[in-house]
Amino acid sequence: MKDSNTVSTLQIYTLVVLRLMIGWHLLFEGISKLLNPAWSSFGFLSESKWLLSGFSNWIISNSGLLKAVDFLNTWGLIAIGVALMLGLLTRYAAFAGAFLLLLYFLNNPPLIGMEYTMPSEGSYLIVNKTLIEAVALFFLAVFPAHTAFGLESLFNGMRSKTN
Amino acid sequence: MVMKKDRNQASGADSSLQNNPTSRRTILKALAGIPVLGVFGFEALRYMNYTSKKNSSVIKVLGLENLQIPVAEKSMTATNADILRIGIIGFGSRAQQLSNGLGYMHPDDVAARKQNDSLAEWLEQEDLKVAITGICEVFDLRAEMGMATAQNEVRVGAGTSKPLPVKRYLRYQEMLADKDIDAVVIATPDHHHARITMEAINAGKHVYCEKSIALTEAELFGVYNTVKNSDRVFQLGHQITQNVVFQQAKEIIKKEILGKITLVETTTNRNSANGAWIRHVDKNGNPYPGDEKTIDWMQWLGDRPVVPFSIDRYYSWVKWFDYDLGMIGQLFTHEFDAVNQLLRIGIPATATASGGIYYWKDNREIPDVLHCVFEYPNHDLTLVYSANLASSRDRGRVFMGHDASMELGESLSIKADYDSTRYKKHIGDGTIDTSAPMLSIQQGSGKIDAVTSATAKYYAARGLTTTNINGRNVDVTHLHLKEWIDCIRHGGEPSANIERAFEEGVACLMAHKAYMEKRQVAWDPVNRRIV
Q1: What b/e sequence results for B508-531 when a residue is b if at least 16 CB atoms lie within 10 Å of its CB, and e otherwise?
Q2: Half-sphere exposure of B365 toward its Cβ, with a 13 Å CA cutoff?
Q3: Residues 429-488 of B with CB under 8 A from A
Q4: Which residues of chain B have pLDDT under 50?
Q5: A22: in domain
Q6: Which domains does chain B have, with CATH numbers?
Q7: Cβ of A43 and B118 within 8 Å?
Q8: What is the predicted pLDDT for the residue at B381?
Q9: Nearest CA distance, A94 vs chain B (angstrom)
Q10: Is residue A156 situated within a structural domain?
């Protein structure tokens, strides 16, 4: 019973590599938005279909709100990326990242009959890379991807020592 | 709960963590992310360096280092004492847009904007210090809409100035005779434009007139001479060039980035009943309101042949040559203005036109497919206008040069030509890529961009970006009206002045004559007439 709860070293390494890579990806997504002064979520949101289209249209109809969303998106991605890479507040970062990616997915889901002008590099049916990355982050959040290889483990270790 | 379980798992993975938590090995492992972040930072810096170098090398090749990109709104202050009293003649849908540009809006539209949260944005528009004090309209329903618009207390600058009384005039002559009107905005069907403009200028009013300016040569010369011999400010309604992107395109043309331009292709691509000017019935085929009791039909006809009242003619007047020049007058005018503002090509030497009624086979006289070709041998250039009302395939507005071509719409995008002489070396060494735009300017960014991602470029090409100046959405019609009003107050020539309007008027009349007479027509510059 106990055996089934333990994680092997190889499994830990695999989780950490996945965590670092997703962190890398989200951090660069954030940084590239920061570096491009012309970037705005306007185009993406105006393409929104399905469940969240009303919500997205409400955002783009209000320039102040759109600016706030742009800001939160850019800095949110950067914060989540850094946290995942350093292994700091990893669980929160992973959940937040998964939530953010799920929002992207729900805005532009590749459902049958939904077509977008935005080019995508691949062919998708319901499941796309955004959804997979979101699920991978859920996976990281519920598995111990941060315990050994992350700043958090140091704090946890110190805490357990002082205890 | 979960955290606890995790710790157990971790201890299973590496028991030393629990036993000796601050051991060297543990600390090193805990810091595992830092070298990865370091590599990331290094690579990100390299990437930034690469893109900025590539961007600056393209910009250098193009000589655009010192490109002045005007993004600031010119603000000229006026006080409440200078309130300009404006009368609007003809109050259809265009007049409502013009009223919005002046800072006035119908209560229904205010409610709609409140609903979608865009009212505040409109209220931020610059207060032009104007009052709409007169409405002249032949249809009671529209006159009431105009009155409600002008009297609405929700308006730009409502807190700073007192509202002025608004008067409805049954005939435009009464408005022109009224000393309490300083300037008029003419937004009637086209067959009234020239006559009312002349009478308004003669009555001492400044005039903002929607295109097109005239339907005959006699009208065109009449307006030209009247405006030329007066000190009143005239502006033709071509808001398109107020677009910030246009000012930037002007700089690009000045710097000869495109090389020698020999062909300019302008297009109209529409595919709907409304776009084909079937506007007297709603979606379900029910006619819009209006009858002889509520519409002063004889005044609406003006000096045109008398025909029995027709709701079709009242709303869908564009379909008949008695009231306008069809697509030439409604749409090519904007295209000509755009090209002429950039290239200053003026009146063409010759024009040919052909087309027909191939899709909308109703009672119309105007063609729904039309091609006009204008020759400018003195500029070594041909201007083409290709229009279709039965296909919305987007063909854009393209300036074709030997070294590069520029597509200009809501945004601007320039592609180097594979066989360019000027960029040969840079295409060879990879600095310039001919498969993607080498330069694009998106609205509002005010920045030149030679390297953004494919997605961003795609949006730029489609013009899916917002129109804004200094981060604020600004209505181009507002800017065009503002230019006119600034010239009235402070002097100067508006961009669509009578000279530009005359050149455009001649080009349009040449194309119309060529279409009607099925032959090439020419401009006789000595006798100043179309032959």
Answers
A1: bbbbbbbbeeeeebebeeeeeebe
A2: 13
A3: 442, 444-445, 447, 449, 452-456, 458-459, 462, 464-466, 468, 471-473
A4: 1-18, 68, 71-72, 444-447, 450-468, 470
A5: yes
A6: 80-239 (3.40.50.720), 244-279+316-475+498-530 (3.30.360.10)
A7: no
A8: 97
A9: 14
A10: yes
